[in-house]
Amino acid sequence: MTVLPAPEPRNLAFSPSFDEETELRLQLIKERILCRSGIVISLGHSSMLLQALYHRAFELRKASIPDYLKWLEHSADERELARLISRVTVHTTSFFRDRNQLDLFASRVLPQLIARHPAEMLRIWSAGCSTGEEPYSIAMLLARMGVRRSRVRLLATDISPNVLHQAEQARYPVAALTGMSEAERALFQVAGEHCTVGKEIRDYVEFHFHNLVTPGYPHQESSPWDVIFCRNVLIYFHPATTRQIVNSLKDCLAEDGYLLLGTGESIFQIADGFQVQSGPSAFIHQKKTPQRAPPPAAPKKRVEPPAPSPQQVPFQRALAEATTWLEQGQAPRCSQAMIPLFLLHADCFELSALLGRAALAQERIDEAVAFFLHAVQIDSLDVLTRFYLAFCFYLQGMDQEAALQLQKVLFLRGDFGLSHYYLGLTSHRLGDLEKAHLAYRNALGILPAHPSSEDRQALAQLTLTLEEAVQACQFRLQQLDPKS
Question: What pTM does this model have?
Answer without folding.
Answer: 0.54
